[in-house]
Each structure stands twice: as C-alpha cells, then as structure tokens.
Write a structure and sequence with these properties.
This protein is of the alpha/beta class. It is built from 20 helices and 17 strands. It is globular.
Length: 547
C-alpha cells in the first residue's frame, strides 16, 4: 500500500506536467496562428485591397453647393446624442480635400477605394426635388481621379444617411414609399457613374440600421422601446422587421433595374453589406451551440438569406412566423438571387448563450434578439483583448470562422470584406495614437485568419481596412479613431500612423518577419519609418505633443 502510493505521486506529477505542457503548446500555437506574419503574396494578384470611408463621416460641407439636410445633419445637432456634442458639419473636410485623400490612398498602394454617395448631395429632397448637378460633379471628380491613379471605385449608394425630408414626410424606412425614393437614388447613380464604376453596394449594413435606429434608438430617427432603450416613440420588437423588409425590397428593386437597364452595357457587379460578429457558445452545451446559429441568423443572415434564397432564415421563421413580413410571389422572384456578391463588415467575436431554456437579461429573451444573450466574458475572462469600442474585442480567429460560415451557407458566393479595423482606447495620447502598434497587430492577425479561410476554399475577393482616416464615428464622435491616418482637428492635416506605413509595406510586398522586432521594441527608427516627408511629419507631431 505504501509502496504503491510512493509510485503514484511521481506518476501523477508527471501526468500533470504533461497536461500543462500540452495546454501551453496549444495556446502558443493559437497565438502564433493569430499573430503570424502575413504577406501580400498569400492573396491572388487580382485581389482587391483598399481602404473605406463614408460620406457623412468624412465629407463635411453639409450645406455647400446645393446639398440638402440629411437625417444625420439634424440628429447630430440634438444635444446629448453624440459624444462631446460632435457633429459632421465639417468632419474631415473631404469635400474640399478629396484629392489629398485619394493621393494618400494611392501612396499606400491600394487598388480599390470604398466610399459612399451622400443622398442629399445628389438628390437634396429625394424625388420631391431635382438632381443637384454640383453633387454629381463632385462624385465624378472622385471617380475620375481614382481611375487616373489606377484605383477601382467601390461605391456604396446608401450608408446610413438619407434626406431628412423623407423622414418628415412618411417615416423613411418604416414606409414602403421609401422603396420608390431609393430606386430613384440608385438609378441616378447608375446613370451618372455606372460607365466607370464596376463595384456597387446598394445599402450598407441594413441589419445595423434596424438595430441601432429601431431596436436601441441610438441612431436617427431614435426609435426604441423597453428593455432596449428609453425612447419617446418606437417598438423594438416590431419596427426593425418592417424597416429591414423595406430595405431589402428597395435593394432588390434597384438591382432589378440595374440588371435590366445598366449592367449589360456597364458590366459591373452589385451586392449588399452586412455587419456580423462571429459567435462562440458560452457553455459547452447543445443549447448554446444552437444559440450561436440563431445569433448568426438574426444578424447577417436576416438580410442575406432573402437575397440568396428568397425568404428570411428558417431560424427566424421557426420561432416567430407571424411577426415576420412576407414576400409576395412577385417580390420573391426579384428578391431571390439579387446579389452578385456579399459585402461583410467584421470586427469582433462574442459568446452566445441560449435564452429559450435559460433565464436571460438585456432583452435576450426577445424574438428580435433570437432568444440569445451575447457577452464578451466567460468565467471572468474576456474573449479577447479589449479595444476602444464597446463589444469589439481582438479575436482574429473569428475572421476565419465568419468567412467560413458565410461561404458554406451561401454556396461559396464571392465575398468582399468591406470593413475591418481597430480603434484604441480613447485615453491614448498623440504619440501612442500615431505609433499604433496594436492596430498593426490587429490587421496582421485578421488578414492571417482571412488567408486561412481562403486556403480552406472561401471565395474572398477583397479586403478594405476601416478606415483611411480618423473620422466622425457616429454617436462616438471623433474620439473613436479607426484611421490609418490621424486628422489634426485644427488644421485638417492628414498625418500617417505606423499602420499606414505597415499597410504600404504589406501591399508592396515589403513585409518581413523582422518587422516583428520593430513592433516589439516600439522604436521610431524601425524599418517602418523609412525616411520620407510623411515620417518627418509624424516625428514633428510627436515632438509637439510631448512639448
């Protein structure tokens, strides 16, 4: 008995040490996989690499040259709606500095440039007024100058903003009348720009419009109900479904028009963008694995399923058939198959917990949430490194998983990652904001994961870093900074960050394994800061900040 016990103790210790080593090795391998060096050569030669911006977030000039008032022009002036009471009246003054922004994008080596059309710049009053020639001229200049630089315009027709008049007249997306206005906007764009634009996005993130404007009431028109928010008007369980339905029909009608009248001659392609987290089960239970499926269905698939298969996801129909709007046979005919590609905006991953068989808080027990509660924490540990944005955590493996999910669900339809980016804590000072090591690590990790998804068979054709420049980040104002370039708010000077130099090196195949040392040491004289005027600007700004 004593002898056996004597031998059992060392054996148990050995077993324990082996387990620890295996666990450490696995963790180390996961870390290496997420942070490994990534190269341009891992992607096809014709792969689109670009940066992304949107009109209201960068243009400014909110009443210049005949532009009308948008929903965001009005909403951002309501005290307390935007952090620090910021607004987009001037934004990054891209309306006057667009040539400079195109030049800095070109200097990075991108071959595509995603931007959006301001609805009120080209149709100030929607169909209740005339086309604004100055607005058409402005976007023609952007498109022509991009093409002169060898950069493909990747154009979003509608990115959150719309004429305030349409909200006042009939409630914008809550009314089917909005479909007529949106088709006119799309037709104006196809007529005016389609001879040169080969990549069209109809609507940016309809799922987030429904979520932020009609579930939580954080974006205009600010509709919501308990427990999701405290608004004077709205129904968070019903209105988002109506809004999404009208957006999808608007998209489908615009695509029908494009395919019948413009695409045969112009030869472009057209899609729609959704924003989607990836989700992982909170507990190792089948109920939470099903919750993951519902979370994915009630976010991205809510918009994409109808455009591919002709109806809302079965995960939604299963739980609330009566609440979901339906497509008529005629509508189904032109809604189904109404995208040439999927635009995917992806930033982070969360855990999902079932709320059908378990009690939940924060509205997880509501249909609009898919009877799912999502969280960033498990057993007191965050799912990834926090960023400067709530519920955005650094989880590179999520990129591979979400792309794989979309690829399998939609029969390997072409995908463009139309947004992916990092914002640091808002407490960082200028030197740290410019020497943005964490942003570089973020893009490297997520691009590595994207490369793995492609090797696994996903038909991914492009990647756009959000964003080219720090800009007006909606209700977060100017304190949330996703840009590769910093904007001096006093002078509007564009100042390159370390990430801009990294992206340039990556796109011109200058990335090297030794770059890790430069990042690790955090030294200005690393190879990321080769001599140039822009580098001197960065150093001068750092010196000024220190003084």
């Amino acid at each position: 008995m004593t002898v056996n016990a004597t031998y059992q103790l060392p054996l148990l210790l050995v077993f324990f040490v082996v387990l620890v080593l295996l666990s450490f090795t696995s963790t180390a391998q996961d870390f290496d996989t997420d942070s490994q060096d990534v190269r341009r050569s891992q992607f096809a030669d014709n792969f689109l690499f670009g940066t992304a911006i949107s009109a209201y977030q960068v243009e400014g000039a909110y009443l210049d040259d005949g532009k009308g008032l948008s929903n965001w022009d009005v909403f951002s002036h309501i005290p307390g709606k935007i952090k620090n009471n910021d607004n987009g009246d001037v934004a990054d003054d891209d309306y006057h500095l667009f040539l400079e922004d195109i030049e800095i994008a070109h200097s990075l080596g991108v071959n595509a440039y995603r931007f959006s059309i301001s609805w009120t710049r080209i149709l100030p009053r929607g169909r209740f007024g005339e086309v604004n020639p100055s607005g058409i001229k402005f976007y023609n200049k952007i498109i022509d100058n991009l093409l002169l630089k060898g950069i493909e315009p990747f154009v979003t027709i509608q990115h959150f903003e719309l004429p305030r008049e349409l909200e006042d007249r009939y409630g914008s997306w809550l009314s089917p009348l909005m479909q007529m206005d949106f088709v006119l906007l799309a037709e104006t764009c196809f007529k005016s720009f389609g001879d040169r634009v080969k990549y069209w996005i109809t609507i940016n993130e309809p799922n987030m419009v429904a979520e932020l404007a009609y579930v939580r009431g954080m974006h205009p028109p600010g509709h919501c109900s308990a427990p999701f928010g405290n608004c004077s008007v709205g129904n968070s369980d019903v209105e988002p479904l109506i809004v999404m339905h009208n957006m999808l029909l608007s998209h489908a009608k615009a695509v029908k028009l494009y395919r019948e009248r413009f695409q045969p001659q112009q030869g472009g392609s057209i899609g729609l963008i959704v924003q989607s987290h990836m989700y992982e089960p909170l507990r190792d239970e089948e109920a939470d694995r099903q919750a993951v499926n519902r979370a994915l269905a009630f976010t991205g698939s809510w918009a994409i399923d109808p455009l591919v298969f002709g109806d809302y996801p079965p995960e939604m129909r299963q739980y609330h058939e009566s609440a979901l709007p339906s497509f008529s046979p005629e509508e189904t005919e032109y809604v189904k198959g109404s995208i040439d590609f999927i635009g995917l905006n992806h930033y982070s991953t969360l855990y999902a917990k079932d709320c059908i068989h378990s009690p939940c808080v924060s509205g997880g027990d509501h249909f609009i949430r898919g009877f799912t509660y999502t969280t960033e924490e498990k057993d007191g540990v965050l799912i990834g490194e926090p960023t400067g944005v709530e519920r955005f955590f650094v989880v590179p493996r999520g990129m591979e998983k979400i792309v794989d999910h979309f690829s399998k669900r939609y029969n390997n339809m072409p995908i463009y990652v139309t947004e992916n980016g990092y914002s640091p804590s808002q407490t960082e000072q200028l030197p740290d904001l410019l020497h943005d090591v964490d942003r570089v690590k973020f893009h490297k990790g997520y691009l590595s994961a994207l490369a793995r998804a492609i090797r696994n068979g996903a038909d991914v054709r492009g990647y756009f870093a959000w964003s080219l420049v720090d800009n007006f980040e909606w209700t977060a104002g100017y304190g949330t900074t996703f840009g590769l370039y910093h904007i001096d708010r006093r002078t509007m000077k564009r100042i390159p960050k370390l990430s801009a130099k990294w992206y340039q090196d990556f796109l011109t195949n200058r990335s090297r394994g030794s770059n890790r040392e430069g990042l690790k040491n955090g030294k200005e004289d690393s190879q990321y800061f080769r001599k140039s005027k822009n580098n001197d600007m960065v150093r001068n700004e750092i010196k000024v900040a220190k003084i």
